[in-house]
Design a protein that fits this description.
2 copies of one chain form a homodimer. In chain A, helix 2 packs across helix 3. Chain A contains 9 helices and 16 strands.
Chain lengths: ~325, ~325
């Protein structure tokens, strides 16, 4: 099979042996695979794939059709449309995934859109609900709201009756972010005047930390998922105590199978129905053929887009 | 009634009008009232009593006998032995407390010991179980383990089968801390070599933060309750993400009635049986008569003790 391949700091297309599904695994013919920030970090050598994933084929999410089943795999049949997060290897013509990490693609969702759902909706759902416990009526602040995880978080919080404040750096993204369900869309400068917030979803990095604590309400939670703008900042523990606040930091990729499977079950139960009814959607900024993978990565790195960049192997 | 009183940065004994129990409240004839770090902070003008508590009578915990009942108060009868946390006003001959904040004193516990139980056991139980969710078999690190909250946390974690590592500054306290149930007692210097820890109970302050994150295990939780050694430190969010770790900061005093009542019910259910059987105990370092309140505060401030300083009004 052909697959996107990271080789000496560049991404190109190479021939690889077809992967074979092991016990409990499904062979997926990949139809769509979203790009994510983690791919960019892996390209720069800063985010190696976890053990058990292809070390040189990037891609943390995929959607496609079941092309084969390993021993004991029984959740899906050949031909079923499936999607899921993977530890790596999503951006090839074929991939193997444990069946418990996969979800059915709702009938209402086509390719390439399905290839952009798993990573950002799993990350956003896990962060704001499973980790931070966002409740109806609470106020959510999303930093970096125009990105993939941000657009997912806005929709998920809006759908349960949360009040969503979004910060976006690029003024051109404001209208689209508001249309996804943000009640307020702000420039990042001075956001702390608009609190108090019950939950802060931090997708930008450490420079916001001090102001996040200031803007936090009593019993507020800050969930840190992205640190592209920096990792280190001063924390005032006294200020955090006065709010009885929490800082939760997380990543998805390194989690063991049982935890990734649990996130898939949570999405099937709480998120996929929203795609079936059309309440939720994944904005797709642009699609690329596998042969154009280098251009796709350049487009992602350029930023300024709203929505996902998706490869179609 | 006579009560410890904070006046112009000094603590002395003054006459006050007898408090009267309002609806749902209990009038308690105080027999024992523990001193806590918060009293010292209030003495220095840095921790004013919350609304609804006497502004000038210190004391966050008390034990005594029921001397009167307000409208609708029905959980206790006159003469019952009770104890509980209060927002202030514990260190007087009489105090009023909402009945749902009070707990019965187990038969096996006498005065003055009962006066040293509520604040430290509520704080420790809330921090390591309710906040951090410590589980049997997990590893707990307690910084400042010779203090009141530290000695309570060691006993509580040991009782459920946790593995407890304690740091103490004063080498003279090591044996006593080990006898309370600590599996390892360390000097604070270099503690991070002894991880990974599932839960860190921080009773000292910000200077430990960086090493706490380094010493944290996957899915580890740092609970910050005391910051006497400093409030501000650099936090590496990338390191915290790699651990999928959490920092939780909390205080008890400012919480509303319903939350304080919930902590009292949790103690009745999960902690008081340990006092009834003798598994748990509150080390008492020294007791003082109400007239000697200034000497009691000086003794507390001098440090180096293991266990509680308790006033006997």
């Amino acid at each position: 099979m052909r697959a996107a391949t990271i080789r000496d700091g560049e991404v190109l297309v190479e021939e690889h042996p077809d992967p074979e599904p092991g016990a409990g695994q499904v062979l997926v013919r990949v139809r769509a695979a979203g790009l994510n920030g983690a791919d960019q970090m892996q390209l720069r050598g800063r985010y190696p794939a976890p053990a058990g994933s292809p070390p040189d084929i990037p891609g943390l999410e995929l959607a496609g059709e079941v092309a084969g089943l390993g021993d004991g795999a029984a959740r899906f049949a050949v031909g079923d449309r499936v999607m899921g997060i993977v530890g790596g290897g999503g951006q090839g013509e074929l991939a193997v995934v444990h069946e418990r990490q996969l979800m059915p693609v709702p009938d209402a969702v086509g390719f390439p859109d399905a290839g952009g759902i798993p990573e950002v909706f799993t990350t956003a759902h896990d962060a704001i609900f499973t980790q931070a416990g966002l409740r109806p009526g609470e106020r959510l602040l999303v930093h970096g709201a125009a990105g993939g995880v941000g657009t997912a978080a806005i929709q998920l919080a809006h759908a349960i009756g949360g009040h969503v404040t979004a910060t976006v750096r690029n003024p051109d993204s404001r209208d689209a972010v508001a249309q996804l369900g943000a009640d307020e869309v702000l420039d990042p400068e001075g956001f702390e005047e608009h609190g108090p917030f019950d939950v802060v979803l931090e997708l930008v990095g450490a420079p916001n930390l001090g102001a996040n604590v200031k803007a936090l309400g009593t019993n507020g939670r800050i969930v840190v998922i992205g640190i592209g703008a920096g990792a280190k900042a001063e924390l005032n523990l006294g200020a955090l105590m006065a709010k009885r606040g929490r800082i939760m930091a997380s990543t998805l990729r390194a989690r063991p199978l049982e935890q990734k499977a649990a996130t898939a079950r949570a999405l099937e139960r709480e998120v996929l129905p929203g795609f079936a009814t059309g309440t939720l959607r994944v904005p797709v900024a642009e699609t690329f053929a596998l042969d154009d993978v280098a251009a796709a990565y350049e487009r992602f790195a350029a930023g300024g887009k709203l929505g996902k960049i998706i490869l179609e192997p």
